Model the fold of this input.
Amino acid sequence: MAFEKTKHKKKSQPLKRVFKQFKKVIKGPVSRISKYSKLKKQGFVVNFVHEGHAQIKLPKLSVGEVLFGYGITIKRNFDYHTRPHAEVLLRKTIYELYEQGYLSADKSIIDIGSWIADNSLVWARGLTNDAVVFAIDPSPENQAYGKKIAEINNIENIKWIEAVCTEKAGEKLDFDGSLDHASFKAQDNSDRYLVSSTLDQIVNDAKNIAIGLLHVDVEGFELNVLKGASELISRDKPVISFEQHISKEDVGAVSQFLKSHGYRIFMINEVLPGCSLDCRNFLALHSSRDLPVFEEFDQEKGRDMGVFSAVIGPRVIEI
Done:
């Protein structure tokens, strides 16, 4: 009997593998159809509820894109759809800084590591006069997607810049993985690389541009990028938002660099669902100005807004 059971078990293994493969094949289309249905129900419009209910219309999808998952639009559409409910406390904080006039809508914005342009497009909507958003990302597909949405929404005050920035212009930077979420390192002998620019160079080339907000999300390359923005940081003293993985990156080095330029550093008190558990957003505010007054945040009701606090305390914690 024991032999027969073993034999029967061995015969069932191919069937299990076939079932798993079949399940894997149908899972993708079913998931895409479900997400597509939600987007279609909303008219392909994404409502950024924590940023003045700014609405961004997304490109529509073809049947082929939904069923087979090809093209640059489909996954980015589904990612974009979730963005109003990601990094909620950061979004609310930046929006309030504009609402109370601490951030000026007449000054331009740098959004480096702009990815699918969820921040760039929303922020561009709020700018006035000649202020622009510099949406900087090394991925041509990310840039193409952002441009497509900007065109659909008639947003024209964005400068799309396909580049990677570091401390010095002209460095050869190797990267790991896809350019969509690349991590960079200097390496002269790499067979695949991008040549660096700097934020100072980009802003100086644009001429007569004052930066009010600098948002840096570059997968661990933040210190290098900020060092390449020393001139504009000293001149314009922008509000600086940056992301760090506090268990594997040297947050202290970034903080010390900014403190040497007269900044006070604050951690946004929020865990970021969908990201590594150690991922946090930080805000740097120049000490030459009084601190802004933030609306009181009821931590007990955080989940209702999609905010998951990192620790007990206020929405921003000085470090």
Observations:
- The mean pLDDT is 91.
- Residues 86-318 form a domain with the Rossmann fold fold (CATH 3.40.50.150).
